[in-house]
């Protein structure tokens, strides 16, 4: 078999990062920035909408190539970071509807068709997101920290603990305390999580509960028991933070983390799969 492949290379595909309203000058706002695989960013317009896109090689973003990227954690991380950096940069200049990671179409003509087909839906979503950002609130339970706090408090109030306790009794007492501390920490974290919507409800336009994060997606001590997203007016971000300040300061073993502001990924509803032959979406890349 001849090792030299003389077949012409397939034309590049169109990778879509976000959709916005025409006239928002996204071209000039992102001038000089590159997208996936180093492709220059541009816009594709159809009616009153524009899609922010870049060209990507067919061999890397066709069905087989895209599957390989999704299965390679390092390639996936690079793609996700590039995708989100483009969306965040765009959102600094205009309200845009973030598309899911790896939303790819065969060419710009297919992108235009998609914009026409989804014009009403996208227009409504852009109106809903105008002037708003996404904030995340995560609540963690850490039984070990709770146990350490209880132990320190007990030592401070009862320094003269009896030395006649047998090893067996000491072990059983320790096990009971561990179970109690574990239960109490999770109950306290649940109570704190329930308090969050009550404190911020007046300034929130929408709320979405995500699955709690685990493993590498949940860095830091404790277990993530609540992972909620909030759609908030951009002008009320400081007020949102102030409303939650000190919420868990006096609750041992409970931690509250506020993330953002972000472009409102959680409240956008992009196509589940690309129209007209594209390879579609492969998820949100694990940003939260």
Structural class: alpha+beta
First CA to last CA: what distance?
A: 49 Å
How many helices in DSSP terms?
Answer: 9
Q: Strand share of the residues?
A: 15-25%
What's the total count of β strands?
A: 8
Provide the gyration radius in Å: 25 Å
Uncertain segments: 168-172, 271-288
Strand order of the largest sheet: 2-3-1-4
Give the helix proportion (percent range): 25-40%
Largest sheet: 4 strands, antiparallel
Mean pLDDT: 81
Question: What is the overall silhouette?
Answer: globular
Note the run of SSEs as H and E.
Answer: EHEEHHHEHHEHHEEHE
Structure notes:
This protein has 288 residues and is α+β, with helices and mostly antiparallel strands. The chain is 40% helix and 24% strand. It has a 4-stranded antiparallel beta sheet, sandwiched between helices. Strand 2 and strand 3 form a beta hairpin. Helix 7 packs across helix 8. The longest helix has 34 residues.
Observed structural traits:
alpha+beta, 4-stranded antiparallel β-sheet, 8 strands, disordered C terminus
Layout of helices and strands, plus pairs?
Blueprint: E1 13-21, H1 26-29, E2 41-46, E3 49-56, H2 58-61, H3 63-71, H4 73-91, E4 96-105, H5 108-117, H6 119-129, E5 132-141, H7 143-157, H8 167-200, E6 204-210, E7 223-233, H9 237-244, E8 254-262
Antiparallel strand pairs: 1-3, 1-4, 2-3, 5-7, 5-8, 6-7
Helix pairs in contact: 7-8
In short:
The chain is α+β, with helices and mostly antiparallel strands. The protein has 9 helices and 8 strands.
């Amino acid at each position: 078999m001849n090792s030299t492949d003389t077949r012409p290379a397939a034309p590049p595909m169109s990778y879509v990062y976000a959709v916005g309203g025409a006239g928002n000058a996204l071209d000039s706002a992102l001038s000089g920035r590159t997208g996936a695989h180093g492709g220059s960013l541009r816009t594709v317009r159809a009616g009153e909408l524009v899609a922010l896109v870049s060209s990507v090689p067919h061999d890397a973003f066709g069905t087989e190539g895209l599957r390989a990227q999704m299965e390679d954690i390092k390639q996936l991380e690079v793609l996700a970071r590039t995708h989100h950096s483009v969306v965040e940069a765009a959102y600094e200049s205009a309200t845009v509807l973030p598309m899911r990671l790896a939303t790819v179409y065969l060419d710009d003509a297919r992108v235009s068709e998609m914009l026409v087909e989804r014009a009403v839906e996208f227009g409504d979503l852009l109106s809903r997101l105008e002037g708003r950002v996404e904030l995340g609130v995560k609540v963690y339970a850490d039984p070990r920290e709770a146990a350490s706090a209880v132990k320190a408090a007990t030592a401070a109030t009862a320094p003269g603990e009896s030395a006649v306790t047998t090893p067996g009794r000491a072990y059983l007492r320790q096990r009971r305390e561990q179970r109690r501390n574990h239960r109490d920490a999770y109950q306290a974290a649940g109570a704190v999580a329930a308090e969050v919507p009550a404190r911020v409800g007046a300034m929130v336009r929408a709320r979405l509960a995500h699955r709690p994060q685990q493993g590498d997606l949940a860095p830091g001590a404790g277990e993530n028991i609540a992972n909620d997203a909030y759609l908030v007016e951009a002008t009320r971000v400081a007020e949102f933070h102030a409303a939650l300040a000190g919420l868990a300061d006096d609750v041992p073993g409970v931690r509250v983390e506020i993330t953002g502001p972000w472009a409102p990924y959680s409240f956008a509803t992009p196509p589940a799969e690309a129209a007209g032959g594209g390879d579609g979406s492969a998820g949100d890349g694990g940003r939260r």
